[in-house]
Design brief:
The chain has 244 residues and is α/β, with parallel strands linked by helices. It contains nine helices and six strands, in the order βαβαββαβαβααααα. Strand 1, helix 1 and strand 2 form a beta-alpha-beta unit.
């Protein structure tokens, strides 16, 4: 299986950047998109897929060229990675994750739903759902295609996430998990988890947790657990202790 990966807008595409951050810097959208694209290649390679970066050049690459490269390579899936924006000012309160497919693509919708399900399990962000759009890369590709908007550049908290290596890796991993689910292929975790699999399984067996993927990410230090989840674990542990 061949997966085409599109790092969204090029580095010099006008307007695709954050407002000025408090430290005086800006972050271009492609800084995030390209980092995630390259990390996604590693995740998918480990799971046995062939990958194709449709815009590996430093300069901007036209959408038509990106799509043609994927079509010519007869890719099985097309993934476009983006970061959203609202009004271009940090006074925006809009944020969150959304995943797009073409309105006439049944397979694209199934892929979008699988990927989105994993994207919303990580760093707490608003769930903006799976949506349909007539975007060029969704319309002109000859394979199921999705476009991921992993956050908002003009929401300060999410803008800061763009250059966070842990967040970049999380997004890449979650996309790969969704691809594996869609294609009914096992997602292969990295080997260096220091016995975490055993800890997670014991917690599941004890009835303390149910979500293996989420708590693995927590114990690997890739995401911060939600306080209410920690509270639930303690409540479950207390109930089991008092039962005895």
């Amino acid at each position: 299986m061949r997966i085409a990966i599109d790092d969204g807008h090029g580095n010099n595409t006008a307007g695709k950047r954050t407002p000025t951050l408090p430290d005086g810097s800006i972050i271009k959208e492609n800084e995030f998109n390209q980092a995630v694209a390259r990390l996604l290649v590693k995740e998918l390679d480990r799971c046995g897929f062939e990958t194709l970066l449709v815009a590996p050049e430093a300069e901007d690459v036209a959408l038509a060229t990106r799509v043609k490269r994927a079509n010519d390579a007869k890719a099985d899936i097309y993934i476009s990675i983006h970061y959203n924006a609202s009004n271009g000012q940090f006074d925006s309160k809009k944020g969150g994750v959304e995943t797009y497919c073409h309105p006439h693509s049944t397979k694209g919708r199934k892929l979008a739903e699988a990927v989105h399900k994993h994207l919303i399990k990580g760093t707490p962000q608003a769930d903006r759902g799976t949506r349909t759009a007539n975007f060029f890369v969704l319309r002109e590709t000859s394979m199921p295609a999705i476009l991921v908007e992993a956050g908002f550049m003009d929401m300060l908290g999410e803008a800061k996430l763009m250059k966070n290596p842990d967040f970049q890796g999380e997004v890449a991993r979650e996309i790969a998990q969704g691809v594996c689910e869609y294609l009914e292929v096992e997602f292969k975790q990295t080997n260096c988890n220091n016995g975490i699999d055993t800890i997670i399984q014991n917690a599941i067996n004890a009835g303390l947790i149910t979500d293996r993927i989420y708590w693995t990410e927590v114990l690997l230090g890739r995401i911060q657990p939600k306080p209410e989840y920690i509270s639930t674990i303690f409540q479950r542990a207390h109930s089991k202790i008092t039962e005895k």
